[in-house]
Predict the structure.
Amino acid sequence: MLNDGHRELSLVRWGLIPSWAKDPDIGQRMINARAESLAEKPSFRGPLRRKRCLILADGFYEWQTVPGATRKLPIYLRLKSRKVFAFAGLWDRWLDPDGVARTTCVIITTAPNALVAPIHDRMPVILPREHYHLWLEPAEQPPEKVLPCLKPYPADEMEAYAVAPLVNNPKVDDPKCVAPAQP
């Protein structure tokens, strides 16, 4: 959901391509943005002020290093309520050489909460519902007004569990990807 004045869902490609980029391949490297440096980085400074978005999800994966194991363990994280939530994101629109517009986005990350910390050193910013209105405000916002929204989500409202390694295969799109792993 973009802060473009229309409160509707939009299909947006993950991997931010700034409007000024010469090469769209930059989007492959810009899938996450650190909350702590958004206001300083040229790729994120403008979108933080003018192009914020909500990225809807019902969960996300992180991969945990397990001592002695050859592969990382996939972990599924979600809200205990199992409700849909929104990641804080930024978006931009890039015109390709043929004049075709591509709308792309990046997910904002922050320090992990107590639940995520043993699994990964970062976590996506899950915006509490009370911040949706400000985050989607179409008017330009100074960083000091929106940056306080970008905090780790309360750990006691989340849950995490191991899932089967089949989630590592991008060709698999199946409810088994979020089923708890069998011991």
